[in-house]
Amino acid sequence: MTGGTDSDFPTSLAEPRERLWQALHACDETRAVAVVRGALGATPSTAERTRAAGERVLLELIAPVQARLGEAWAANDITVAQEHAGTAISERCVAAVVDSTASARPGTPAGRVVVACVDGEWHALPARLVSEVLRLRGWRVDYLGAHVPTEHLVAHARYTRARAVLLSSSVEVLLPAAHNAISSCQGAGFPVIAGGAAFGPQGRYARLMRAEWAGDAPGAAALLDGGPRRPGARAVRPPEADLPHLGDEEYTMVLRSKRQLAKQALADVQESFPETRWYNRYQNERTAEDIDHIVTYLATALYVDCPELFARFLAWTADILTARGVPPRCLLAALDSLVGQLKDFPRVFGILHVARGALET
Ligand code: B12
Q1: Nearest CA to ligand 1 atom 83
Q2: Apex CA 326: angle with CA 82 and CA 350, to 5°?
Q3: Which residues form the B12-binding domain (predicted)?
Q4: CB 119 within 8 A of CB 150
Q5: pLDDT, tens digit (0-9, with 9 covering 90-100), for 131-156
Q6: Is residue 79 pLDDT above 80, yes or no?
Q7: How distant, in Å, are the alpha carbons of 84, 130, 288, 298 from that of 207?
Q8: For a pocket test of ligand 1, which of 25, 60, 170 has the largest count of ligand atoms closer than 8 A to its C-beta?
């Protein structure tokens, strides 16, 4: 397998990164592809150098610019439409790298693997980047894209006799679905390597779910090269086998009463903030959506028993609201409502308490 750096390739991609960002910002696909092709270098090179250049352009040029797109959206500097256009251009840039490096790919594949997004996950570009790096490193990759139903994922892994299944997820609310995919794939005998922001700092949630974890595509390649861990005999298992705290049923209770919890929290927020009476339909819908997300993240924090997950989400939501001129103190009213509604449940109460403290500081 190949990888590593190339002495002919620029040591810093800072300048092309800025130019790619400007092209994405201007929704200019032609300019973006030209930047990518320029960074790949026009001079003929060895296959190994071409592969190394391709990998760096994918991971050090396209990926960080795409992440910057998310930061700009969060800061309310670009619209949702610009973010969508930018993502479509990034996909086109990945395709340009694939075209330019196709002839340099290693001939005989090292093995066949499946790369897929968890059921419900629409962030496909991270999985695509991982797939293309693995291809450049000699793996045959079946890239299944976004939102792959677990039963179809397992069936495809079986059909292709995959060496491993690589699962990508970006949003934490999908952790229960990710857990189901992990245990289903392992139950069918496939090693699983998980990755993406949803799996938490240093992949802590992947490890809770007994999957291997890699922070990036080269990390996944290293695990594959070393022979990924085969699932043990007790691979088919209910969620509480990995997460014994689920035995207290608090997760199930919050999930089942989600609609009622959110409805009451919305009513309490509206009572605490009389100005919400003058909200238009769009603003009312966004407020209801935000509260719905809060309850869903609360349930997810219960699932993995991690108060920090909920606190992180609230800090993120506070930043999003502040950037849009909405006072984040309305989050405290929503939390107080949930504390009142859930005070008899010790674990959920603890999570709300930690988050409230973090939000007040
Ligand atoms: C583009 C985008 C979208 C697009 C995705 C389209 C597509 N084709 O991918 C759309 C519009 C669908 C979308 C929807 C949503 N999004 Co969005 N999105 C983004 C954005 C801007 C870029 C995602 C991306 O491509 N990142 C670039 C890649 C390179 O970064 P990466 O994820 O770190 O991936 C690397 C590593 O993590 C690793 N890796 C990833 N997967 C794997 C797998 C394996 C096996 C391995 C080894 C490694 C690995 O390797 C990758 C390459 O280096 C991010 C911002 C961001 N910072 O990422 C937000 C972001 C992820 N989205 C966010 C949100 C909130 C949402 C929505 C909930 C919005 C909404 N209200 O509807 C929905 C959720 C939809 C869903 N259920 O999936 C938030 C998540 C915040 C949070 N706390 O969870 C982010 C962070 C935006 C932000 N700044 O706040 N989004």
Answers
A1: 313
A2: 105
A3: 110-234
A4: yes
A5: 999 999 999 999 999 999 999 999 99
A6: yes
A7: 32, 20, 33, 20
A8: 170
Q: CB neighbours of 82 closer than 8 A, spacing ≥ 6?
A: 25, 27, 73
What are the C-alpha distances in Å from 246 to residues 17, 103, 249, 301? Answer: 45, 51, 6, 11
Q: How many domains does the chain have?
A: 3
Let me know whether 192 and 172 are in one domain.
yes
Write the CB contacts of 87 (distance below 8 Å, at least 6 apart in sequence). Answer: 66, 69, 125
**Residue partners of 358: CB distance under 8 A and separation at least 6:** 311, 314, 315
* C-beta 228 within 6 A of ligand 1: no
What is the distance between the alpha carbons of residues 312 and 203, in angstroms, rounded to a whole number?
15
Tell me which residue range forms the domain holding 16: 1-105
Token duo for residue 284: 């009312």
Domain termination residue (choose one: 56, 78, 105):
105
Are 324 and 224 members of one domain? no
Distance 339 CA to ligand 1 centre (A): 30
